[in-house]
Amino acid sequence: MNTDVRPHTPPGTAITAGQVLGAVPDAVRRLDPRSAVRRPVMFVVWVASVLVTVLVALAPNVFGVLVTAWLWLTVFFANLAEAVAERRGRAQADAMRRSRTETVARRVSPDVEEVPPAGSGDRVPAGDLVPGDLVVVGPGEVVPGDGEILSGLASVDESAITGESTPVVREAGGDRSSVTGGTTVLSDSLLVRITAAPGQSVVDRMIRLVEGARRQPTPNEVAITVLLATLSVLLVAAVTALQPIAAYSGARQPVLVLVALAVCLLPTTVGALLPAVGIAGMNRLVRRNVLATSGRAVEAAGDVATLLLDKTGTITFGNRMATELVPVDGVGVERLAAAARLASLADPTPEGRSVVELCAREHGLSADTTSDERAAVRVPFTARTRMSGLDLPSGAVDQPVLIRKGAAAEVVQWVRDRGGHPPAGLPGIVDAVARQGGTPLVCARAEGGHAEILGVVRLADVVKPHMPARFAELRRMGVRTVMITGDNPVTAAAIAEQAGVDDHLAEATPEDKMRLIREERRGGRLVAMAGDGTNDAPALAAADVGLAMNSGTTAAKEAGNLVDLDSDPSKLIAVIGVGKQLLITRGALTTFSIANDLAKYFAILPAMFTAVHPGLGALNVMGLASANSAVLSAVVFNALVIVALIPLALHGVRYRPLGAATLLRRNLLLFGVGGLVAPFLGIWALDLAVRHLPGLG
Amino acid sequence: MNPATAGLLQIALLLVALALSYRPLGSYLARVYDSPVHNRAERVVYRICGVDPEAQQRWTGYATGVLCLFGVSAFLLYALQRAQGVLPGGQGRPAVPPDTAFTTAIGYATNTDWQSQPPEVTTGNTLLLAGLTVQNFLSAAVGVAVAVALVRGLARERTDRIGNVWVDVTRGVVRVFLPLAFLGAVVLLVGGVVMSFAGPVVVTALDGAQHRVPLAPVAAIESVKLLGSNGGGLYGANSAHPFENPSALTNLVQVYLMLLVPVALLRTFGVMVGDHRQSRPLVSVVAVVAAAVLCLVWAVESRVPRGAAQVAGAALEGRESRFGVFGSALFAVAATGTSTGAENAAHNTFGGLAVAGLLVNMVLGEIAPGGVGNGLHALLVVALLAVFLASLMVGRTPEYLGKKIGRVELSAVSVAVLTMPLLVLTGTAAALALPTTRDALAEDGPAGVTAVLYTYASAANNNGGAFGGLDVGGGYVQVTVGLVMAFGRFLPALAVLRLAGAFAEQGRSPVTAGTLPTTGPLFGALLAGVAVLVAALTFLPALALGPLAGALG
């Protein structure tokens, strides 16, 4: 289980030469104007490239040919970035899809209620199934589509989706009744009602998010595109207006140089990498075994202000465990341990086992049952008695030793019934255990008409060791965690404090959860939650980020906008990190791209006008060799910076869970100030090489 | 006292005065626009105009009101000018020619106060008092109203109402500009500014010739000319004229009056959104940009030429010896920074880099501190741009004061940001491409580019300050300048009102540790950086061929 907030690059995700080379044909195909027009900024560059190609074809020269070539390379590099991102995303998605389309389903008539015998039903391609169709899936067969089990129980290998090789049990009814297309039934047969139309399954929706051509831009991407369009209009206007002013000043410029200037100034860096950033963000989720069904959800994850987490299984290890033995006054802890162990031997629940283990671990008692003990009469827990234990044979046949453990009130009554008196210190111990979030089990012993209370076994929910640190990180990121639990308020408060969550909701019903989500959202806070049951579905749908467990019901998966294939609710924390990283990467590239422009003016303006206004040579702070070498260096830098930033776009800006002020300072320095300085150095260095080309010195 | 000490002393006095008025006036303005109570004078106005002061408007209604007010104002001004010959109180002045009347009408209705003719020659008392001065109050109040509507949009939640334009404009006139103009006029009067309806005085100039200098209620009008970022004086020489601005002391008072309301409005913003710390970065941007431009202009201007030029008084060419180099520099920076367009010196005689500084002060788009109202909303628009980038960099979708900046909001920001540069660049390029305008230029080369660029920058920013060297008498320049003024004023205003509407409809996200802080110095630096970068990217080529080529050539 990986709940690390840092979406660091897992091994094996480096960009390989193979990926890049493999993407080249695809990148070339995207030079097609019908494809290019989808990326507004790069389309302007595409048009500019066509224009200069025509101009240079009419009057060829070395400078013109080089500038034209690099303008085309600029467009190509942008395509390459997107193609590589898609290629990386598609690898996993393709595997999922292949398993779907090649599957043959066995459709049965809609009135079937029980699992029909193996081999029955009409054989149809999985792609032809529509929601509502009933199919039967036998051992060794692949589930043809997402659906709900109507009848049957089977072990299913879900490794095609989750990568987890241990089979899981799926059965009709309850919270484990859904199956995912592409998984394989290992034993037994299932009657499945298909719930997703072809092309609408979770996997299909996920595939759409990583394929550039079919992706819908997310709201934030649209907003950034508006910003880039604004900048483009502004800069194209500045360059267009330059020609009449230049002509008036006696320095009419060649169209080639003006086009080169315009392309350099356009926010090409971010325009080129924006689609790749979006695709790569989705890929990072896929690598964490999270499928997103909307890009909006991933963006919203960055904005999450309130995180609702179920206590059991997420914040704590699902089961209560014995953590301590507290004897009453006058009883040795060894005696209590012996009785507690005996009382729990007959208790097969995890709680019971944990008592035996505690006694073995801390008091050196045997964890195994001896033959004598096996012969004892087991008294199982019932809802009426609310206690369990063992009647141990002793010397006197009719006088067995009775050992009991259970809820305080019942055990006290049991002791009183046998003439014993509960010790005065008991209520204090019981209260103290409850106050600390534990469940007190009172342990008693009766032998020969003498009954006594020995002490208390403390059962506690144990908070997973790494969780408090995670919540502290979340707090630094501005995310408030609310723990949801069915426990009573006292227990809930104690666990909440141990775990370090910001708030908790005790004795929570699904309605309470809905109410909490509505309240938070009314206050403008974005809410993230995880859920698996059918009764979680409304809350999952209401939350801004709803992470459904793959092990959960179809209703839950339909309602959420993310599905975790590992069914680990704490993965929400990682999802928030991925969302933030996605936004930061976009912001960093946009800022870098805009900041880059200043240097290009300092390169190209003196190149254009030093001939008529020698004084403007003072602006040539980089000491570029000639007008042509300055223009070419700027164009080359502009193209190469796209290539240089492809890894950043694909891996994302390194994100650490810090407060906003710290993050801003760091990223502004890196991408704002860095963006101002880098092109001065880059263009200067390129010019040192470019000036040696014939006709450019 | 040497000039540097005098300069620093003036700065210190000015800063103390601004600091003293910042809080009380800023809070007072917030109360004015948030108050539910109408005073008697206002109720009379509402009854006469048939306005329901309790009706809250959508952004569309508010915008319609602003445009109607402009249309009616411009039409009445045009009519008044054309009818001057037959109206009483024209003091024998003839009707204003149509193209001049057109530009002047738009100029005064847009708070630009474009004057292509010396007013003492063209303007009689009726036109002055019933037309131009009325607009000096009204157009200033409209500017503040638009900014206040945006601030309300940011302050309100889940409503489509952003206030009532008639109430906001009326209050601006009655509760803000009338009382302030009265106080200002008294101070100027005490300082020696003329205030008279008597006939012209006859003076004998140094050359021995006799000049008839007309008198007017100068002090009263001078006060609102500066307070409302208007800038249209009573004399062609504007604040260089001894009747408008007799001494170094009145000069400093005039600078203060220009800065008073725009600076106080920054405080008003903080008060109205319920967090006065939000004003801090805006104030620091204004201070830093204004200080930088002032330092540049002052440094260039006080570089004393050696030799014969010094003997001939080269450093003071085009300046008034009453104010000295610093007084002229300070006034010029304040007048361009507030889009007032008043002048106490001839800007075309400033050094090349100083002119570049003044131009930059304008093309930054009224942010240091900008005209009344316009400055505040221009700063907020830049803040939204800065927030957009900065929010993403801290991993949040962009939001300012808990309001999301999505596609609709950013589109409105785009219109507000794009209008001025597009108007200035198109206007300049077209004027330089046309033979008729090229012929109207006194000088060729960089000086010609500078003159045209200055003219259109001044018009698009509703500054109104003229720059010698371009004869704007010709029909083409008159008409295009008129259009540029109108679009330069109202396209951004519409965009700002659209923004106000969009923000008002939103709820508000709460502040968490993950929220971008918009109160600290870092955000202030980012704000200034974005403003300077956008202006630099847009205008660097034009500036290079104009003032920079002139200065470096």
TrEMBL record, chain A:
<keyword id="KW-0633">Potassium transport</keyword>
<dbReference type="Pfam" id="PF00122">
    <property type="entry name" value="E1-E2_ATPase"/>
</dbReference>
<feature type="binding site">
    <location>
        <position position="351"/>
    </location>
    <ligand>
        <name>ATP</name>
    </ligand>
</feature>
<feature type="compositionally biased region" description="Basic and acidic residues">
    <location>
        <begin position="95"/>
        <end position="110"/>
    </location>
</feature>
<feature type="binding site">
    <location>
        <begin position="381"/>
        <end position="388"/>
    </location>
    <ligand>
        <name>ATP</name>
    </ligand>
</feature>
<keyword id="KW-1133">Transmembrane helix</keyword>
<dbReference type="InterPro" id="IPR023298">
    <property type="entry name" value="ATPase_P-typ_TM_dom_sf"/>
</dbReference>
<dbReference type="InterPro" id="IPR006391">
    <property type="entry name" value="P-type_ATPase_bsu_IA"/>
</dbReference>
<feature type="binding site">
    <location>
        <position position="405"/>
    </location>
    <ligand>
        <name>ATP</name>
    </ligand>
</feature>
<keyword id="KW-0479">Metal-binding</keyword>
<comment type="similarity">
    <text>Belongs to the cation transport ATPase (P-type) (TC 3.A.3) family. Type IA subfamily.</text>
</comment>
<keyword id="KW-1003">Cell membrane</keyword>
<feature type="binding site">
    <location>
        <position position="347"/>
    </location>
    <ligand>
        <name>ATP</name>
    </ligand>
</feature>
<keyword id="KW-0460">Magnesium</keyword>
<dbReference type="InterPro" id="IPR008250">
    <property type="entry name" value="ATPase_P-typ_transduc_dom_A_sf"/>
</dbReference>
<keyword id="KW-0597">Phosphoprotein</keyword>
<dbReference type="InterPro" id="IPR023214">
    <property type="entry name" value="HAD_sf"/>
</dbReference>
<keyword id="KW-0472">Membrane</keyword>
<dbReference type="InterPro" id="IPR023299">
    <property type="entry name" value="ATPase_P-typ_cyto_dom_N"/>
</dbReference>
<feature type="binding site">
    <location>
        <position position="532"/>
    </location>
    <ligand>
        <name>Mg(2+)</name>
    </ligand>
</feature>
<comment type="subunit">
    <text>The system is composed of three essential subunits: KdpA, KdpB and KdpC.</text>
</comment>
<feature type="domain" description="P-type ATPase A">
    <location>
        <begin position="117"/>
        <end position="211"/>
    </location>
</feature>
Automatic annotation (TrEMBL), chain B:
<feature type="transmembrane region" description="Helical">
    <location>
        <begin position="323"/>
        <end position="342"/>
    </location>
</feature>
<keyword id="KW-0812">Transmembrane</keyword>
<protein>
    <recommendedName>
        <fullName>Potassium-transporting ATPase potassium-binding subunit</fullName>
    </recommendedName>
</protein>
<keyword id="KW-0630">Potassium</keyword>
<feature type="transmembrane region" description="Helical">
    <location>
        <begin position="252"/>
        <end position="270"/>
    </location>
</feature>
<keyword id="KW-0813">Transport</keyword>
<dbReference type="InterPro" id="IPR004623">
    <property type="entry name" value="KdpA"/>
</dbReference>
<keyword id="KW-1003">Cell membrane</keyword>
<feature type="transmembrane region" description="Helical">
    <location>
        <begin position="522"/>
        <end position="544"/>
    </location>
</feature>
<keyword id="KW-1133">Transmembrane helix</keyword>
<feature type="transmembrane region" description="Helical">
    <location>
        <begin position="349"/>
        <end position="369"/>
    </location>
</feature>
<comment type="similarity">
    <text>Belongs to the KdpA family.</text>
</comment>
<comment type="subunit">
    <text>The system is composed of three essential subunits: KdpA, KdpB and KdpC.</text>
</comment>
<keyword id="KW-0472">Membrane</keyword>
<feature type="transmembrane region" description="Helical">
    <location>
        <begin position="282"/>
        <end position="300"/>
    </location>
</feature>
<feature type="transmembrane region" description="Helical">
    <location>
        <begin position="137"/>
        <end position="155"/>
    </location>
</feature>
<feature type="transmembrane region" description="Helical">
    <location>
        <begin position="375"/>
        <end position="394"/>
    </location>
</feature>
<keyword id="KW-0406">Ion transport</keyword>
<feature type="transmembrane region" description="Helical">
    <location>
        <begin position="176"/>
        <end position="198"/>
    </location>
</feature>
<feature type="transmembrane region" description="Helical">
    <location>
        <begin position="476"/>
        <end position="501"/>
    </location>
</feature>
<dbReference type="Pfam" id="PF03814">
    <property type="entry name" value="KdpA"/>
</dbReference>
<keyword id="KW-0633">Potassium transport</keyword>
